[in-house]
Amino acid sequence: MRLFSKIIVFFYTLIFAIIGVCLIFIALHMEGRYDLSMVIDSVLGFSNLYLVVGLSGVLLILVTLSLANFSFKKFQAEKTIGYSTNGGQIIISLGAIEDFIRRLTQQLPDVKELRSDVFVTRRGIEIESRVILWSTSNIPNITERIQAVIQGQVQELLAGIDKPVLVNVHVTKIAPREQEKSKKPKQEIPFLR
Questions:
Q1: How much is the pTM?
Q2: Rounded (10°) angle between helices 3-27 and 49-76
Q3: Domain count, the chain
Q4: Using CB atoms within 10 A as the burial measure, which of 78, 101, 117, 156 is most buried?
């Protein structure tokens, strides 16, 4: 994570934590120790406002801390897979695996386009593939074949990693072939004379 991003998340967390603490102080009637304006005093005249303001302060602090935690984890998530061998450590970029999958499926005649995202989770290496098929394809057969090809080749590529490879295929579009477009009879438009 870049230093600039860390600074932004730190100040974001600090500002909202201060706002949350101020709301809790107001709810606990500690505002008398500070010089507050008359506007705040008139707002505080409402019944049950202290309870609402206090709970809002606690909620704001909890949400801010959880967002900061989530942001740090997301920034720190690396886009690599690594394993050790006798000769040293090997690190593979997930982008390289995505490119490998794209080139691998270009050989399949029923696939017009395939894009994949690779994630490393607790369950293993998950591959989310979005595919555009030609309309002449048998969808159950080709998707099963895509899963088998991707899973087999990626497991072979990552032979040193013991995690299972899970492939999810989403058919996003079915495109007509150019031959089908040309088979449509052309309608001739009669010209008025």
A1: 0.54
A2: 170
A3: 2
A4: 101
